[in-house]
Amino acid sequence: MYSRSLCITYPRLYRTTHTMAAETAQQPVTSTSTSTLWTAPTWIKSFYSKFPLVVLEQEDELDWKIRARDQSPQGCVLWIHPSSQSAHPHQRRWLSSSPASLRTQLLFLLRDTAATVPVTFREWSNEDSAPGGTLPALHLPSQDRLIPTDEVRGWLEGTYPLKGKGKELQGLPSQEAYDRALALSQLILGHLLPAYLASLPSQPSDFHLLFPVPPPLLAGLTTPLPASLTGDRRDIDLEEVVRKGVEAIEAVEVILSEQGEWAFGAKHPTSLDALIASHLYVVYSFPPISALRSAIESKPVLGEYIDRVLDYAEDRLHK
Protein backbone atom coordinates (compact mmCIF):
# COMPACT_ATOMS: atom_id res chain seq x y z
CA MET A 1 0.00 0.00 0.00
CA TYR A 2 2.85 2.29 0.80
CA SER A 3 5.99 2.52 -1.33
CA ARG A 4 9.37 2.45 0.33
CA SER A 5 10.71 5.11 -2.06
CA LEU A 6 9.62 8.61 -1.27
CA CYS A 7 10.02 11.80 -3.26
CA ILE A 8 10.22 14.92 -1.18
CA THR A 9 10.18 18.44 -2.60
CA TYR A 10 12.27 20.88 -0.62
CA PRO A 11 12.15 24.67 -0.99
CA ARG A 12 15.17 26.29 -2.66
CA LEU A 13 16.07 27.97 0.62
CA TYR A 14 16.51 24.56 2.25
CA ARG A 15 18.70 23.46 -0.67
CA THR A 16 21.01 26.45 -0.51
CA THR A 17 21.58 26.24 3.23
CA HIS A 18 21.77 22.51 3.90
CA THR A 19 22.91 20.65 0.80
CA MET A 20 25.91 22.50 -0.64
CA ALA A 21 28.31 19.96 0.80
CA ALA A 22 26.40 17.14 -0.87
CA GLU A 23 26.50 18.91 -4.24
CA THR A 24 30.29 18.98 -4.26
CA ALA A 25 30.33 15.17 -4.30
CA GLN A 26 27.33 14.58 -6.59
CA GLN A 27 26.22 15.71 -10.01
CA PRO A 28 23.81 18.62 -9.83
CA VAL A 29 20.19 17.72 -10.25
CA THR A 30 17.65 19.35 -12.50
CA SER A 31 15.93 22.23 -10.79
CA THR A 32 13.16 24.66 -11.50
CA SER A 33 12.78 28.24 -10.55
CA THR A 34 10.76 27.32 -7.41
CA SER A 35 11.89 23.94 -6.06
CA THR A 36 14.29 21.03 -6.37
CA LEU A 37 13.35 17.32 -6.53
CA TRP A 38 15.34 14.98 -4.27
CA THR A 39 15.31 11.25 -3.54
CA ALA A 40 14.46 10.40 0.07
CA PRO A 41 17.54 9.86 2.25
CA THR A 42 18.52 6.25 2.93
CA TRP A 43 17.71 6.45 6.65
CA ILE A 44 14.08 7.36 5.87
CA LYS A 45 13.66 4.36 3.58
CA SER A 46 15.31 2.14 6.17
CA PHE A 47 13.03 3.45 8.91
CA TYR A 48 9.81 2.80 6.99
CA SER A 49 11.00 -0.66 5.95
CA LYS A 50 11.15 -1.65 9.62
CA PHE A 51 8.27 0.46 10.92
CA PRO A 52 5.69 0.68 8.13
CA LEU A 53 2.77 3.01 8.55
CA VAL A 54 -0.22 0.99 9.74
CA VAL A 55 -3.73 2.35 9.95
CA LEU A 56 -5.82 0.45 12.52
CA GLU A 57 -9.57 0.18 12.12
CA GLN A 58 -11.62 1.82 14.83
CA GLU A 59 -12.77 -0.89 17.21
CA ASP A 60 -16.13 0.63 18.01
CA GLU A 61 -18.09 2.35 15.28
CA LEU A 62 -20.30 4.15 17.75
CA ASP A 63 -19.58 5.82 21.01
CA TRP A 64 -20.41 3.64 24.04
CA LYS A 65 -22.84 6.23 25.34
CA ILE A 66 -24.69 6.35 22.03
CA ARG A 67 -25.03 2.58 21.95
CA ALA A 68 -26.75 2.66 25.34
CA ARG A 69 -29.38 5.24 24.41
CA ASP A 70 -31.95 2.62 23.46
CA GLN A 71 -32.34 1.78 27.14
CA SER A 72 -35.43 2.73 29.12
CA PRO A 73 -35.05 5.92 31.20
CA GLN A 74 -34.63 3.84 34.36
CA GLY A 75 -32.48 1.15 32.80
CA CYS A 76 -28.76 0.53 33.08
CA VAL A 77 -26.12 -1.14 30.92
CA LEU A 78 -23.56 -3.56 32.29
CA TRP A 79 -20.53 -3.78 30.03
CA ILE A 80 -18.99 -7.25 30.30
CA HIS A 81 -16.29 -9.48 28.83
CA PRO A 82 -17.45 -11.40 25.73
CA SER A 83 -19.08 -14.81 26.05
CA SER A 84 -17.16 -18.03 25.53
CA GLN A 85 -17.07 -19.69 22.12
CA SER A 86 -16.39 -23.13 23.61
CA ALA A 87 -19.52 -25.29 23.44
CA HIS A 88 -20.45 -27.32 26.52
CA PRO A 89 -23.67 -28.75 28.02
CA HIS A 90 -24.30 -25.78 30.32
CA GLN A 91 -23.45 -22.97 27.90
CA ARG A 92 -25.64 -19.86 27.76
CA ARG A 93 -24.77 -17.38 25.04
CA TRP A 94 -25.64 -14.34 27.14
CA LEU A 95 -23.16 -15.23 29.87
CA SER A 96 -19.67 -13.76 29.98
CA SER A 97 -16.59 -15.97 29.81
CA SER A 98 -14.93 -14.01 32.65
CA PRO A 99 -15.63 -14.97 36.28
CA ALA A 100 -15.70 -11.29 37.30
CA SER A 101 -18.25 -10.24 34.67
CA LEU A 102 -20.32 -13.41 35.04
CA ARG A 103 -20.50 -13.05 38.81
CA THR A 104 -21.76 -9.47 38.43
CA GLN A 105 -24.37 -10.56 35.90
CA LEU A 106 -25.72 -13.10 38.37
CA LEU A 107 -25.62 -10.60 41.23
CA PHE A 108 -28.06 -8.45 39.25
CA LEU A 109 -30.36 -11.30 38.24
CA LEU A 110 -30.43 -13.36 41.44
CA ARG A 111 -31.03 -10.43 43.76
CA ASP A 112 -34.28 -10.79 45.77
CA THR A 113 -35.57 -7.21 45.65
CA ALA A 114 -38.94 -5.53 45.48
CA ALA A 115 -38.31 -4.57 41.84
CA THR A 116 -36.30 -6.33 39.17
CA VAL A 117 -33.17 -4.43 38.22
CA PRO A 118 -33.69 -3.14 34.62
CA VAL A 119 -30.28 -4.14 33.30
CA THR A 120 -29.00 -4.96 29.83
CA PHE A 121 -25.74 -6.77 29.19
CA ARG A 122 -23.40 -5.55 26.46
CA GLU A 123 -20.13 -7.17 25.45
CA TRP A 124 -16.90 -5.17 25.25
CA SER A 125 -14.22 -6.99 23.29
CA ASN A 126 -11.12 -5.20 24.57
CA GLU A 127 -10.96 -4.53 28.30
CA ASP A 128 -8.13 -1.98 27.99
CA SER A 129 -10.33 0.23 25.81
CA ALA A 130 -13.42 -0.14 27.98
CA PRO A 131 -14.83 2.84 29.88
CA GLY A 132 -12.65 3.16 32.95
CA GLY A 133 -10.17 0.56 31.66
CA THR A 134 -11.70 -2.40 33.54
CA LEU A 135 -14.71 -4.69 33.21
CA PRO A 136 -17.44 -5.01 34.23
CA ALA A 137 -18.52 -1.37 34.19
CA LEU A 138 -22.03 -0.03 34.78
CA HIS A 139 -23.49 2.82 32.73
CA LEU A 140 -26.52 4.77 33.96
CA PRO A 141 -27.85 6.58 30.86
CA SER A 142 -30.41 8.62 32.81
CA GLN A 143 -27.62 10.12 34.93
CA ASP A 144 -24.95 10.07 32.23
CA ARG A 145 -22.81 8.33 34.83
CA LEU A 146 -20.31 5.50 34.63
CA ILE A 147 -19.70 3.29 37.66
CA PRO A 148 -16.32 1.50 37.70
CA THR A 149 -15.87 -2.16 38.56
CA ASP A 150 -15.06 -1.70 42.25
CA GLU A 151 -18.21 0.36 42.90
CA VAL A 152 -20.82 -1.69 41.02
CA ARG A 153 -21.62 -3.97 43.96
CA GLY A 154 -22.03 -1.02 46.34
CA TRP A 155 -24.37 0.74 43.89
CA LEU A 156 -26.48 -2.39 43.58
CA GLU A 157 -26.71 -2.86 47.36
CA GLY A 158 -27.72 0.75 47.92
CA THR A 159 -30.13 1.17 45.01
CA TYR A 160 -31.87 -2.22 45.18
CA PRO A 161 -31.81 -3.40 48.82
CA LEU A 162 -32.84 -6.94 49.67
CA LYS A 163 -36.38 -7.67 50.76
CA GLY A 164 -37.39 -8.96 54.18
CA LYS A 165 -35.41 -9.45 57.34
CA GLY A 166 -31.79 -10.42 57.71
CA LYS A 167 -30.44 -8.12 55.04
CA GLU A 168 -27.12 -8.08 56.83
CA LEU A 169 -26.93 -11.87 56.31
CA GLN A 170 -27.35 -11.48 52.52
CA GLY A 171 -30.44 -13.69 52.48
CA LEU A 172 -28.87 -16.60 54.36
CA PRO A 173 -31.03 -18.24 57.06
CA SER A 174 -28.71 -17.84 60.06
CA GLN A 175 -25.48 -16.38 61.35
CA GLU A 176 -23.91 -19.84 61.23
CA ALA A 177 -24.83 -20.17 57.56
CA TYR A 178 -23.41 -16.71 56.92
CA ASP A 179 -20.10 -17.63 58.59
CA ARG A 180 -19.87 -20.83 56.56
CA ALA A 181 -20.61 -18.83 53.43
CA LEU A 182 -17.66 -16.55 54.15
CA ALA A 183 -15.39 -19.58 54.53
CA LEU A 184 -16.65 -21.04 51.25
CA SER A 185 -16.11 -17.70 49.51
CA GLN A 186 -12.48 -17.70 50.63
CA LEU A 187 -12.08 -21.24 49.30
CA ILE A 188 -13.40 -20.25 45.88
CA LEU A 189 -11.51 -16.97 45.57
CA GLY A 190 -8.33 -18.29 47.18
CA HIS A 191 -8.09 -21.69 45.43
CA LEU A 192 -10.59 -22.20 42.60
CA LEU A 193 -10.08 -18.81 40.96
CA PRO A 194 -6.25 -19.07 40.96
CA ALA A 195 -6.56 -22.60 39.54
CA TYR A 196 -8.80 -21.30 36.77
CA LEU A 197 -6.28 -18.57 35.88
CA ALA A 198 -3.38 -21.03 36.11
CA SER A 199 -5.14 -23.23 33.52
CA LEU A 200 -5.34 -20.40 30.97
CA PRO A 201 -2.67 -20.14 28.22
CA SER A 202 -1.21 -17.10 30.03
CA GLN A 203 -1.77 -15.54 33.42
CA PRO A 204 -2.57 -11.88 34.17
CA SER A 205 0.23 -9.66 35.42
CA ASP A 206 -1.37 -9.39 38.88
CA PHE A 207 -1.83 -13.15 39.23
CA HIS A 208 0.43 -13.32 42.27
CA LEU A 209 -1.80 -10.90 44.18
CA LEU A 210 -4.51 -13.57 44.50
CA PHE A 211 -2.44 -15.59 46.96
CA PRO A 212 -2.62 -14.89 50.72
CA VAL A 213 1.18 -15.10 50.84
CA PRO A 214 2.67 -13.60 47.65
CA PRO A 215 4.99 -16.07 45.88
CA PRO A 216 8.71 -15.14 45.88
CA LEU A 217 10.23 -13.28 42.95
CA LEU A 218 11.48 -15.54 40.19
CA ALA A 219 14.76 -13.58 40.14
CA GLY A 220 15.33 -14.28 43.83
CA LEU A 221 15.07 -12.01 46.86
CA THR A 222 18.83 -11.39 47.10
CA THR A 223 19.32 -9.82 43.69
CA PRO A 224 20.65 -6.23 43.90
CA LEU A 225 18.92 -5.34 40.62
CA PRO A 226 15.75 -3.25 40.79
CA ALA A 227 12.39 -4.73 39.84
CA SER A 228 12.34 -2.49 36.75
CA LEU A 229 15.15 -4.67 35.35
CA THR A 230 14.33 -8.08 36.80
CA GLY A 231 10.56 -7.77 36.33
CA ASP A 232 7.87 -8.84 38.77
CA ARG A 233 7.65 -12.47 37.67
CA ARG A 234 6.94 -14.85 40.50
CA ASP A 235 7.98 -18.40 41.23
CA ILE A 236 4.54 -20.07 41.09
CA ASP A 237 3.99 -23.81 40.89
CA LEU A 238 1.05 -23.87 38.47
CA GLU A 239 0.51 -27.60 38.85
CA GLU A 240 0.16 -27.20 42.61
CA VAL A 241 -2.26 -24.31 42.11
CA VAL A 242 -4.43 -26.46 39.82
CA ARG A 243 -4.30 -29.36 42.29
CA LYS A 244 -5.71 -27.10 45.02
CA GLY A 245 -8.40 -25.99 42.59
CA VAL A 246 -9.45 -29.61 42.07
CA GLU A 247 -9.65 -30.03 45.85
CA ALA A 248 -11.83 -26.91 46.04
CA ILE A 249 -14.23 -28.39 43.47
CA GLU A 250 -14.48 -31.56 45.56
CA ALA A 251 -15.20 -29.53 48.68
CA VAL A 252 -17.90 -27.49 46.92
CA GLU A 253 -19.58 -30.72 45.79
CA VAL A 254 -19.75 -32.00 49.36
CA ILE A 255 -21.22 -28.71 50.62
CA LEU A 256 -23.85 -28.44 47.90
CA SER A 257 -24.85 -32.08 48.29
CA GLU A 258 -25.86 -31.35 51.89
CA GLN A 259 -28.03 -28.34 51.02
CA GLY A 260 -31.37 -27.75 49.33
CA GLU A 261 -31.85 -25.88 46.07
CA TRP A 262 -29.60 -23.01 47.08
CA ALA A 263 -26.36 -22.83 49.04
CA PHE A 264 -26.68 -23.28 52.81
CA GLY A 265 -30.45 -23.68 52.73
CA ALA A 266 -31.40 -20.17 51.58
CA LYS A 267 -35.00 -19.66 50.42
CA HIS A 268 -33.87 -17.71 47.38
CA PRO A 269 -30.61 -17.56 45.41
CA THR A 270 -28.09 -15.32 47.13
CA SER A 271 -24.88 -13.54 46.27
CA LEU A 272 -23.10 -16.72 47.38
CA ASP A 273 -24.86 -18.68 44.63
CA ALA A 274 -23.71 -16.02 42.16
CA LEU A 275 -20.13 -16.51 43.32
CA ILE A 276 -20.22 -20.31 43.24
CA ALA A 277 -22.02 -20.67 39.90
CA SER A 278 -19.88 -18.08 38.11
CA HIS A 279 -16.59 -19.74 39.10
CA LEU A 280 -17.82 -23.25 38.32
CA TYR A 281 -19.40 -22.34 34.98
CA VAL A 282 -16.20 -20.98 33.42
CA VAL A 283 -14.38 -24.26 34.10
CA TYR A 284 -16.49 -25.97 31.42
CA SER A 285 -14.86 -23.78 28.77
CA PHE A 286 -11.56 -25.65 29.18
CA PRO A 287 -10.66 -28.62 26.93
CA PRO A 288 -11.88 -32.01 28.21
CA ILE A 289 -8.30 -33.01 29.08
CA SER A 290 -8.04 -30.13 31.57
CA ALA A 291 -7.71 -31.31 35.17
CA LEU A 292 -10.32 -28.81 36.36
CA ARG A 293 -12.88 -29.75 33.72
CA SER A 294 -12.32 -33.46 34.31
CA ALA A 295 -12.93 -32.89 38.01
CA ILE A 296 -16.16 -30.93 37.57
CA GLU A 297 -17.61 -33.20 34.90
CA SER A 298 -17.18 -36.19 37.20
CA LYS A 299 -19.55 -34.54 39.69
CA PRO A 300 -23.10 -34.35 38.26
CA VAL A 301 -24.32 -32.58 41.40
CA LEU A 302 -22.37 -29.49 40.35
CA GLY A 303 -23.77 -29.55 36.81
CA GLU A 304 -27.32 -29.77 38.16
CA TYR A 305 -26.65 -26.90 40.54
CA ILE A 306 -25.25 -24.69 37.77
CA ASP A 307 -28.27 -25.33 35.54
CA ARG A 308 -30.63 -24.54 38.43
CA VAL A 309 -28.96 -21.21 39.14
CA LEU A 310 -28.71 -20.23 35.47
CA ASP A 311 -32.32 -21.21 34.75
CA TYR A 312 -33.49 -18.98 37.58
CA ALA A 313 -31.33 -16.10 36.34
CA GLU A 314 -32.50 -16.54 32.75
CA ASP A 315 -36.15 -16.35 33.81
CA ARG A 316 -35.45 -13.05 35.55
CA LEU A 317 -33.58 -11.78 32.50
CA HIS A 318 -36.58 -12.27 30.23
CA LYS A 319 -39.14 -10.65 32.53
TrEMBL record:
Kindly give the CDD domains that the UniProt entry links to this protein. Answer: GST_C_Metaxin
Q: Which residues form the Metaxin glutathione S-transferase domain?
A: 247-309
Alphabetical list of Pfam families matching this protein: GST_C_6
What species is given as this protein's source?
Kwoniella shandongensis
Entry superkingdom = Eukaryota
Q: What is this protein called?
A: Metaxin glutathione S-transferase domain-containing protein
InterPro entries linked: Metaxin_GST
